[in-house]
Amino acid sequence: MVAAAILVSTGLGVGFVADDLYHLMILSGARTPAPDGSMFTFAVGDPAVTNEYIRSGPYPWWTLPEVKVVFLRPLSTALHRIDFALFGTNGVPWHVHAMLWYLAMVGLWGLIARKILSAPIAALAPLLFAVDDAHWMPAVWLANRNALVACVPVLFALYSHIRWREEGWRPGLPLSVLGYFIGMWGGEAWLGVSAFVAAYEIAGRNDTLARRAVSLAPAAICAIAYAVFYKSMGYGVYGSGVYVEPLTRAYFVEAPNRILSLLGGLLLASPVEIWGFSPESRWPLAAVGCLGVALFVVLLRRAWPSLEERDRRSLRWLMLGGFLSLLPVIAAFPMNRLLLTPSLASSAVIAVLLRHWWQHRKIGKVPLGFAYATLGVIHLVIAPVAWPIQSGVVTLIGRVGHQVYESAPITDAESVNQDVILLAANDPMTLMYPPIARYMNGHPLPGSWNPLSASPHDHVFTRTGTKTFELETEKGALMHSVFADILRGPEFPFAAGDQVRLRSGTLTVLDAVDGKPRKIGLAYDVPLEDESLVFLVWLDFRLQRFELPRVGESVVVRYLSR
Q1: Residue 532 Cα to chain centre, angstroms
Q2: Which of 221, 238, 334, 450 is most buried by a 10 A CB count?
Q3: For 369-398, what is each residue's pLDDT tens digit?
Q4: pLDDT digit string, tens, across residues 293-305
Q5: Which of 183, 208, 167, 169 lies closest to 73 in space, CA to CA?
């Protein structure tokens, strides 16, 4: 608990970053795509609403009009509203609130570990869980706090269920049902912890099948009722290229790579975040996951004979639960933040391996001793060091980002009637967040904010007329980013000739490769030099005005100069 508190405290100064700013807009009563005030409604699936935000921004022009990204998290929304009412935009108390949720999760896992594992392993497993740097984002990024709000009540339900089944503790049954009920309103992450309840009954009990089925029924009924309510009320995703609906064809196609990539992060701390920034990294990340699984199988087989029977029984259902808990989270694109619930299992497995190594640490006693030592370094040395590093980096990004947004060459008095055209946004922080961040700093929203590309390559800007121009990438597609794919999936391709209406112009797809535009043409209602149009480019680490070429001329917009 002390270790967890120290590590989370390194993020007290992070403040509000990325989606936090969108949440603040909703809380402040600004016009957003969330008409119901839900902080976790990012796209409602209504073409009329979506097209409005494509024209005005910050949705980019390639957004699918029917795209839907709506999550059921009313408890998490309510807690954000309480924080805003009490603390306004002072981020420190918000982060203290998140810290308390993380400490609760660490403490509950410690109680469960003491119930199901032998003393040395029960001592080490919660420590490994507490210092796991994959937990930085749920514990520090306020927009991801919903994962803790969803998991903590269900982890209490798991503790109550185990006591009910192991000790005959009668309050355990109603308390577990209460935990499921509270957790499901926190967010979808509750399903990951409930998977451990199922695994406990499947692989952790020696009762008759009928008895186990009856004992599992309360959790199963809650899960079924939740799923029915979720779908009938219109929650879920549609049309996104990275968020997929569970049990659909896209889900099963994506599952193997996503599961293996997450296993690599879970077992060997591979940098899963690059999955979203570099599509070329996805198979290497999956390969690391295969390596991690193979290594753990070998090491665990060597340690297995020395384990007490209670540890063997607990590891069986914990490992099954850890795998099952991956199945809900792979509906989102892989990031370390998704490892919060699977790491309950991995912390126990790693604790077993490190204890086995420690008991047989004399030279010659432990084959593959280097592998055990490497695990110790990764999970007990590098992991806690990574917490302040991540906090520092994100704090720096947030501060630099705010400086960039503040220094953008946009005049408040004029911007409300201007269309701001960003030629290329090479990272998610400059794609849609600048107008949101400026608004939260007291600036008005521009008439429209229109990013034209998310490609990390050079672009060619060609002036074709007084009111027209073309933009193309020298390599790849304009939507070469997982953050670009969030709002449109590959099953909804573009074709040459497709048009999108912006606030004061029309965009036409001129060339597309595999359904993704490579070249577009823009025709505005006024000359490009008109004061109502503001062209920006990311240059020398800041947003600058783009100098328009003369008609018939082309300019290369360099990626490497940014």
Answers
A1: 36
A2: 334
A3: 788 889 999 999 999 999 999 999 999 988
A4: 999 999 999 999 9
A5: 183
Q: Is the CB of residue 520 less than 8 Å from the CB of residue 421?
A: no
3-state secondary structure 465-530: CCCEEEEEECCCCCCCCHHHHCCCCCCCCCCCCCEEECCCEEEEEEEEECCEEEEEEEEECCCCCC
SS3 assignment, position 531:
coil
Cα 557 from Cα 562, distance rounded (Å): 10
- The stretch 439-449 carries a mean pLDDT of 91
Does the pLDDT at position 97 exceed 90?
A: yes
DSSP-assigned states of every residue in 208-274: -HHHHHHHHHHHHHHHHHHHHHHHHTT-EEES-SSS--TTSHHHHHHHHHHHHHHHHHHHH---TTH
Q: At what angle do helices 249-268 and 309-329 cross, to 10 degrees?
A: 130
- Average pLDDT, integer, range 235-264: 92
Summarize the chain as % helix, strand, coil (round to 5): 55, 10, 30
The alpha carbon of residue 155 and the mean position of all alpha carbons in its chain are separated, in whole angstroms, by: 21
Mean pLDDT of 334-352: 96
Q: 154: Cβ–Cβ under 8 A, 6 or more apart, which residues?
A: 179, 180, 183, 190, 193, 194
Q: How far apart, in whole angstroms, are the C-alpha atoms of residue 516 and residue 380?
A: 44
pLDDT band at 562 (very low <50, low <70, confident <90, very high): very low
pTM of the complete model: 0.93
Beta bridge partners of 542: 539
Listed residue (346, 365, 349, 345) closest to 357, CA to CA: 365
